[in-house]
Amino acid sequence: MIFFGRCHCGNVKFEVESTEHAEIENCNCSICIMSGYLHLIVPKSHFRLIAGELELATYTFNSGIAKHYFCKTCGIKPYYIPRSNPDGVDVNVNCLEEVPSKMKITEFDGQNWEQNAHTLAHKSKPS
């Protein structure tokens, strides 16, 4: 299925391909807790930025590997390139116009990222 998403002001728009039964991570790391991010990780080929490339700012921290993209106008982070899956895209489910109806939310211990990141590695592989 194709799901459409956007930032709050609508300057950044995207589409993502996923299943209704998507497994979504609720992470307890510092940035996810503060921003309320729910993770849907997909292969890059399942993501398409429709509008707003020039409206995005990039934020990196710690290792500098993850690329967090924020709308310059409203400050919302609709997606990013995750450190755990640099060959994929991690979409914020809270930015989707319609969420996968049968999604399963699982808890991810991002406070202990180094010990748990391997459990996400398969998510950016095409199925």
UniProtKB/TrEMBL annotation:
Which InterPro entries did the record assign?
A: CENP-V-like (IPR052355), CENP-V/GFA (IPR006913), Mss4-like_sf (IPR011057)
Concerning its family, UniProt says: Belongs to the Gfa family.
What are the record keywords, sorted?
A: Metal-binding, Zinc
Q: Which PROSITE patterns match?
A: CENP_V_GFA
Q: Where is the CENP-V/GFA domain?
A: 3-114
Q: Give a GO molecular function annotation for the protein.
A: carbon-sulfur lyase activity
Tell me the organism's taxonomic lineage. Answer: Bacteria, Pseudomonadati, Pseudomonadota, Gammaproteobacteria, OMG group
Please state what the protein is called. Aldehyde-activating protein
Q: Name one Pfam family in it.
A: GFA
